[in-house]
């Protein structure tokens, strides 16, 4: 499986971004999937996850602002990020939860005014 995240960029505090993660190689839908992020100088952390049945879970710092979803037909996982904060600045990756696939290229999210 190859995972390719996209949709990041520079945004102002309070803004929104929609990240996408497309998978190639095999269907993702049998796996629980997650969005992870790694800020400079920090460990990579799981911020949102979605099971094959559609149940979601979020780390406290993003609850109410992040929404994870998946599209079975497109073999893609999404992360809608609203009310962006400077502390959301990080490289965002997707992977299964727990981690199983090789890490793909992440997408940089920078929140700054």
Note the topology.
Blueprint: E1 2-6, E2 9-11, E3 17-24, E4 33-38, E5 45-50, E6 56-58, E7 66-71, E8 76-81, E9 90-96, E10 107-111
Parallel strand pairs: 2-10
Antiparallel strand pairs: 1-3, 3-8, 4-5, 4-9, 5-6, 7-8, 9-10
Could you describe the 3D structure shown?
The protein is an all-beta fold and 113 residues long. Helix content is 0%, strand content 49%. It contains no helices and ten strands. The chain has strands at residues 2-6, 9-11, 17-24, 33-38, 45-50, 56-58, 66-71, 76-81, 90-96, 107-111. It has a six-stranded mixed β-sheet with strand order 2-10-9-4-5-6, with no helix packed on it. Strands 1-3-8-7 form a four-stranded antiparallel β-sheet, with no helix packed on it. Strand 4 and strand 5 (45-50) form a beta hairpin. The protein is globular. 31% of the residues are buried.
Parts with pLDDT < 50 across at least 5 consecutive residues: none
Number of strands: 10
How many H/I helices? 0
What is the string of helix and strand elements?
EEEEEEEEEE
Structural class: mainly beta
- Main sheet record: 6 strands, mixed
Radius of gyration: 13 Å
Q: Outline of this structure?
A:
The chain has 113 residues and is mainly β. It is built from no helices and ten strands.
């Amino acid at each position: 499986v190859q995972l390719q995240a996209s949709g990041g960029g520079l945004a102002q505090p309070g803004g929104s971004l929609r990240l996408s993660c497309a998978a190639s190689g095999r269907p993702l839908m049998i796996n629980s999937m997650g969005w992870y992020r790694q800020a400079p100088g920090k460990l990579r952390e799981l911020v949102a996850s979605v099971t094959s049945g559609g149940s979601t879970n979020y780390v406290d710092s993003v609850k109410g602002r992040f929404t994870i979803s998946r599209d079975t037909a497109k073999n893609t996982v999404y992360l809608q990020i609203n009310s962006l904060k400077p502390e959301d600045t990080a490289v965002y990756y997707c992977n299964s939860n727990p981690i199983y696939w090789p890490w793909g290229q992440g997408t940089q999210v920078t929140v700054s005014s």
